[in-house]
Amino acid sequence: MAQRIYELVKNKETFTLKELNEAIQDKPPTTLRARVYDNVGTLFQRIGRGVYAVIDNKDGEVFAFNGDGRDLSMLEDDSIDAIITDHPYEDRKSLKGGSRNFADYDLFLYEQRDFDEKARVLKDGAFLVEFFAEENANNYEYIYECKKMAEKAGLKYYATVPWQKGTFVANTGRKAKNMEQVVIFAKGEPRRLRPDKQRGGIMRGTAGMLPAIFDFQPRPVKQKLHKAEKPVELLKEIIEYVTKPGEYILDQFAGSGNLGIAAIKTGRFAMLIEKNKEIYSRMLANLSYHTATLTV
Predict the structure, then answer these.
(1) What kind and span of H or E run contains 15?
(2) The model scores a pTM over 0.85
(3) 3-class SS at 25?
(4) Tens digit of each residue's pLDDT (9 = 90 or more) over 193-228
């Protein structure tokens, strides 16, 4: 809904809540007002009572690299505003079956050094967003270990929001599955992104209260560029919770490159790293199709 409001008013110098209510009549005024309030400081700024303006977003850009996403030595300390990534972790029992065959990928398990490097390049208060598969007997210990390694690196646990994959259901293993975990950490105390509706100003936390669930349909299997591909709309929503327009987001294991597309659509800068040369080539083609602001 925030994006719908933004598209409606982005070319106006200012807009009022009354104008929104008249233009969007299929939603109650309380919902529209709440979405504007939730995005003050990210998409909108308050000009006066009931009067708002759109924040002038910078044009986004994507920087793509063919390399090892575990090696961040080219990045300076405290240089990244958010990391959003899905590492190809080694769990051959869970990642094989049906349409999934990740055993063909270069798999690994995170080590302490991986989280130490993430913490090093993130700015104070910045968010780390890690995707993990739905918890099962094969991976629950590893997911717990990752959380403890993140904590040791100074990355405080913030929240977990399940991603429900729309109507898609995988009938493998002990039970049907259609979710992944979106696990969010902050480097130290979370940065200030959330508008304080009671006292005004901006309080610590994501740009709005996180939802109970992210519900986005994945691309059909036969159309995917990468087997772990995430929907652009899902990534756009996550980006808007954890960053501001004009900021830099890192995806260490970029796959399809959809994070770059989502970054462009939300006025952010994305740094994408992909190790596999064949996947990297497909990623560049995908990015070039959707945006001209690509640097390799």
Answers:
(1) strand 15-16
(2) no
(3) coil
(4) 988 777 777 889 999 999 999 999 988 766 666 777
CATH number of the domain to which 37 belongs:
1.10.10
Letter for the amino acid at 55? Answer: I
Cα–Cα distance measured from residue 84 to residue 237, given in angstroms and rounded to the nearest whole number: 12
Alpha helix positions (H), the chain: 2-9, 17-23, 29-38, 112-121, 140-152, 232-242, 258-265, 277-290
Report yes or no: 89 and 109 within 8 Å, Cβ to Cβ.
Answer: yes
* Token output for 241: 């919770």
Radius of gyration of the chain from its Cα atoms, rounded to whole angstroms: 19
Closest CA to 41 of 54, 29, 50, 32: 54
Q: In this structure, what is the dihedral angle of CA atoms 183, 188, 189, 191, given to the nearest 10 degrees?
A: -80
Distance separating alpha carbons of residues 210 and 24, to the nearest angstrom: 24
CB of 181 closer than 8 Å to CB of 143: yes
**pLDDT tens-place string over residues 152-174:** 999 999 999 999 988 766 666 66
What is the span of the domain harbouring residue 9?
2-54
**Whether residues 109 and 132 fall in one domain:** yes
258 and 122 co-located in one domain: yes
Apex CA 214: angle with CA 129 and CA 152, to 5°? 25
